[in-house]
Amino acid sequence: MLRPLYNWILRAAGRKDAVWWMAGVSFAESSFFPLPPDIMLVPMCLAEPKKLWWYTNICALASLVGGFVGYAIGLYLFESVGRWIFDLYDLWSSYHSFSESFNELGPWFLILKGITPIPYKLLAIMAGISQMDLVIFALCSVVARFSRYYLIAILLHFYGPQVQELIEKRLMLVTTVVLVIVVGGLLSFKLV
Q1: pLDDT at 140
Q2: What pTM was estimated for this model as a whole?
Q3: Element (H, E) at 20
Q4: Rg (CA), the chain
Protein backbone atom coordinates (compact mmCIF):
# COMPACT_ATOMS: atom_id res chain seq x y z
CA MET A 1 0.00 0.00 0.00
CA LEU A 2 2.85 2.43 0.78
CA ARG A 3 4.82 1.65 -2.39
CA PRO A 4 2.23 3.16 -4.79
CA LEU A 5 1.95 6.29 -2.61
CA TYR A 6 5.74 6.65 -2.50
CA ASN A 7 5.97 6.22 -6.28
CA TRP A 8 3.16 8.74 -6.80
CA ILE A 9 4.92 11.30 -4.57
CA LEU A 10 8.17 10.81 -6.51
CA ARG A 11 6.29 11.34 -9.79
CA ALA A 12 4.54 14.40 -8.34
CA ALA A 13 7.93 15.77 -7.34
CA GLY A 14 8.72 16.14 -11.03
CA ARG A 15 5.60 18.24 -11.71
CA LYS A 16 6.11 21.92 -12.35
CA ASP A 17 3.68 22.94 -9.60
CA ALA A 18 4.93 20.47 -6.94
CA VAL A 19 7.01 23.12 -5.17
CA TRP A 20 3.89 25.23 -4.59
CA TRP A 21 1.97 22.27 -3.19
CA MET A 22 4.89 21.62 -0.84
CA ALA A 23 4.94 25.32 0.13
CA GLY A 24 1.21 25.15 0.90
CA VAL A 25 1.68 22.09 3.11
CA SER A 26 4.63 23.75 4.86
CA PHE A 27 2.64 26.94 5.46
CA ALA A 28 -0.39 25.05 6.74
CA GLU A 29 1.67 22.72 8.97
CA SER A 30 3.09 25.70 10.85
CA SER A 31 -0.34 27.04 11.70
CA PHE A 32 -3.01 24.30 11.71
CA PHE A 33 -2.39 21.29 9.39
CA PRO A 34 -1.28 17.97 10.96
CA LEU A 35 1.07 16.59 8.26
CA PRO A 36 4.67 17.85 7.94
CA PRO A 37 6.04 19.01 4.57
CA ASP A 38 8.88 16.49 4.84
CA ILE A 39 6.65 13.95 3.08
CA MET A 40 6.99 16.09 -0.04
CA LEU A 41 10.36 17.78 0.54
CA VAL A 42 12.43 14.61 0.81
CA PRO A 43 11.07 12.86 -2.32
CA MET A 44 11.25 16.12 -4.31
CA CYS A 45 14.89 16.63 -3.34
CA LEU A 46 15.67 13.01 -4.16
CA ALA A 47 13.96 13.29 -7.56
CA GLU A 48 15.69 16.59 -8.46
CA PRO A 49 18.91 16.97 -6.43
CA LYS A 50 19.93 20.13 -8.31
CA LYS A 51 16.88 21.91 -6.84
CA LEU A 52 17.54 20.75 -3.28
CA TRP A 53 18.41 24.21 -1.89
CA TRP A 54 15.59 25.92 -3.81
CA TYR A 55 13.05 23.45 -2.40
CA THR A 56 14.52 23.76 1.09
CA ASN A 57 14.36 27.56 1.05
CA ILE A 58 10.76 27.57 -0.21
CA CYS A 59 9.77 25.03 2.44
CA ALA A 60 11.46 26.99 5.25
CA LEU A 61 10.04 30.35 4.12
CA ALA A 62 6.52 28.96 3.80
CA SER A 63 6.86 27.40 7.25
CA LEU A 64 8.05 30.72 8.65
CA VAL A 65 5.06 32.60 7.19
CA GLY A 66 2.71 29.88 8.47
CA GLY A 67 4.23 30.33 11.92
CA PHE A 68 3.04 33.95 11.90
CA VAL A 69 -0.49 32.69 11.23
CA GLY A 70 -0.10 30.33 14.20
CA TYR A 71 1.09 33.26 16.30
CA ALA A 72 -1.97 35.26 15.21
CA ILE A 73 -4.24 32.33 16.12
CA GLY A 74 -2.80 32.34 19.64
CA LEU A 75 -2.90 36.11 19.95
CA TYR A 76 -6.27 36.91 18.39
CA LEU A 77 -8.21 33.67 17.95
CA PHE A 78 -7.30 31.54 20.94
CA GLU A 79 -10.85 31.39 22.27
CA SER A 80 -12.17 29.97 19.00
CA VAL A 81 -9.47 28.39 16.79
CA GLY A 82 -6.69 27.98 19.37
CA ARG A 83 -8.86 26.03 21.80
CA TRP A 84 -9.95 23.73 18.97
CA ILE A 85 -6.31 22.95 18.08
CA PHE A 86 -5.48 22.27 21.75
CA ASP A 87 -8.51 19.95 21.93
CA LEU A 88 -7.41 18.21 18.73
CA TYR A 89 -3.98 17.40 20.19
CA ASP A 90 -5.33 16.85 23.75
CA LEU A 91 -2.88 19.32 25.27
CA TRP A 92 -4.89 20.80 28.13
CA SER A 93 -3.30 18.67 30.84
CA SER A 94 0.12 20.21 30.22
CA TYR A 95 -1.08 23.66 29.16
CA HIS A 96 -0.69 25.48 32.50
CA SER A 97 2.75 24.15 33.43
CA PHE A 98 4.00 24.64 29.91
CA SER A 99 2.63 28.19 29.65
CA GLU A 100 4.54 29.19 32.80
CA SER A 101 7.75 27.72 31.40
CA PHE A 102 7.06 29.22 27.99
CA ASN A 103 6.67 32.73 29.42
CA GLU A 104 10.09 32.41 31.03
CA LEU A 105 11.98 30.39 28.40
CA GLY A 106 9.89 30.98 25.26
CA PRO A 107 12.69 31.89 22.85
CA TRP A 108 14.68 28.78 23.79
CA PHE A 109 11.59 26.60 23.42
CA LEU A 110 10.99 28.04 19.96
CA ILE A 111 14.55 27.42 18.82
CA LEU A 112 15.17 24.01 20.39
CA LYS A 113 11.75 22.43 19.99
CA GLY A 114 11.18 24.16 16.62
CA ILE A 115 13.95 22.01 15.13
CA THR A 116 12.38 18.76 16.36
CA PRO A 117 9.39 16.90 14.89
CA ILE A 118 7.09 18.56 17.46
CA PRO A 119 4.40 20.32 15.43
CA TYR A 120 5.62 23.91 15.16
CA LYS A 121 2.04 25.19 15.12
CA LEU A 122 1.78 24.44 18.83
CA LEU A 123 4.84 26.56 19.60
CA ALA A 124 3.67 29.40 17.36
CA ILE A 125 0.20 29.42 18.92
CA MET A 126 1.72 29.36 22.42
CA ALA A 127 3.95 32.32 21.48
CA GLY A 128 0.83 34.23 20.46
CA ILE A 129 -1.06 33.25 23.62
CA SER A 130 1.84 34.42 25.80
CA GLN A 131 2.15 37.58 23.67
CA MET A 132 5.82 37.00 23.00
CA ASP A 133 7.50 39.98 21.40
CA LEU A 134 6.95 39.64 17.64
CA VAL A 135 10.58 40.47 16.76
CA ILE A 136 11.88 37.79 19.15
CA PHE A 137 9.33 35.33 17.77
CA ALA A 138 10.44 36.13 14.20
CA LEU A 139 14.16 35.76 14.96
CA CYS A 140 13.70 32.49 16.88
CA SER A 141 11.44 31.16 14.13
CA VAL A 142 14.00 31.93 11.43
CA VAL A 143 16.66 30.02 13.38
CA ALA A 144 14.35 27.08 14.17
CA ARG A 145 12.68 26.60 10.79
CA PHE A 146 15.76 27.11 8.62
CA SER A 147 17.84 24.87 10.93
CA ARG A 148 15.24 22.12 10.71
CA TYR A 149 14.96 22.09 6.93
CA TYR A 150 18.62 22.80 6.27
CA LEU A 151 19.54 19.78 8.40
CA ILE A 152 17.37 17.64 6.14
CA ALA A 153 18.89 19.27 3.04
CA ILE A 154 22.46 18.73 4.23
CA LEU A 155 21.75 15.05 4.91
CA LEU A 156 20.15 14.68 1.48
CA HIS A 157 23.01 16.56 -0.19
CA PHE A 158 25.64 14.22 1.21
CA TYR A 159 23.64 11.00 1.54
CA GLY A 160 20.81 11.39 -0.99
CA PRO A 161 21.35 8.18 -2.99
CA GLN A 162 21.79 6.13 0.20
CA VAL A 163 18.66 7.70 1.71
CA GLN A 164 16.67 6.93 -1.42
CA GLU A 165 17.93 3.35 -1.49
CA LEU A 166 17.07 2.92 2.22
CA ILE A 167 13.58 4.34 1.71
CA GLU A 168 12.91 2.14 -1.31
CA LYS A 169 14.20 -1.05 0.33
CA ARG A 170 12.72 -0.44 3.78
CA LEU A 171 9.71 1.79 3.15
CA MET A 172 7.60 0.30 5.95
CA LEU A 173 10.47 0.60 8.46
CA VAL A 174 11.17 4.22 7.47
CA THR A 175 7.47 5.10 7.72
CA THR A 176 7.25 3.49 11.16
CA VAL A 177 10.36 5.32 12.42
CA VAL A 178 9.02 8.68 11.16
CA LEU A 179 5.67 8.02 12.82
CA VAL A 180 7.36 7.11 16.11
CA ILE A 181 9.45 10.31 15.98
CA VAL A 182 6.38 12.50 15.34
CA VAL A 183 4.32 10.82 18.09
CA GLY A 184 7.31 11.02 20.44
CA GLY A 185 7.63 14.72 19.67
CA LEU A 186 3.96 15.28 20.49
CA LEU A 187 4.29 13.33 23.73
CA SER A 188 7.38 15.28 24.77
CA PHE A 189 5.42 18.50 24.21
CA LYS A 190 2.64 17.20 26.46
CA LEU A 191 5.06 16.10 29.20
CA VAL A 192 6.90 19.43 29.47
Answers
A1: 93
A2: 0.74
A3: helix 18-29
A4: 17
